[in-house]
Specification:
Blueprint lengths: L2 H19 L10 E7 L5 E8 L3 H12 L3 E2 L8 E7 L4 E6 L5 H10 L2 E4 L2
Antiparallel strand pairs: 1-2, 1-3, 2-5, 4-5, 4-6
Helix pairs in contact: 1-2
């Protein structure tokens, strides 16, 4: 497992904690923090989309950039292998071909209590 993959997993878990602890209910569809993670070759492996506002949004942005992620306005659609929506409703993780096998990624998603959706 690459260092970037591990960073993406840790970032996912950290952002999940933020989503679970946020006091706000939902929010505007454009009121999201989106964090894109690339592998060592510069290919996108994942993009976390988190519905959080206020101080939670600032914390999520800081968590993204401190772990090597890039804040983006939209998660890319090219090379998408699937998405993982967490039960809390506040986070969607997008996974891309550069991360590897969709089956393994789906298992990780289900293992953290998410719902896997292929493209």
């Amino acid at each position: 497992m690459s260092k970037r993959w591990m960073a993406f997993v840790f970032l996912t878990v950290g952002m999940t904690v933020l989503a679970c602890s946020d006091d706000d209910e939902g929010g505007d569809s454009d009121d999201k923090v989106r964090c894109q993670v690339e592998d060592d070759m510069g290919e996108v492996i994942g993009c976390n989309e988190l519905a959080v506002s206020g101080a939670g949004a600032d914390t999520a942005r800081d968590a993204c950039t401190s772990q090597g992620g890039t804040l983006v306005s939209r998660c890319p659609t090219a090379d998408l292998i699937g998405t993982c929506s967490l039960a809390n409703g506040g986070q969607v993780m997008h996974y891309y071909a550069a991360i590897g096998d969709a089956g393994d990624t789906e298992q990780v998603c289900v293992g953290i209590g998410g719902e896997w959706t292929p493209p």
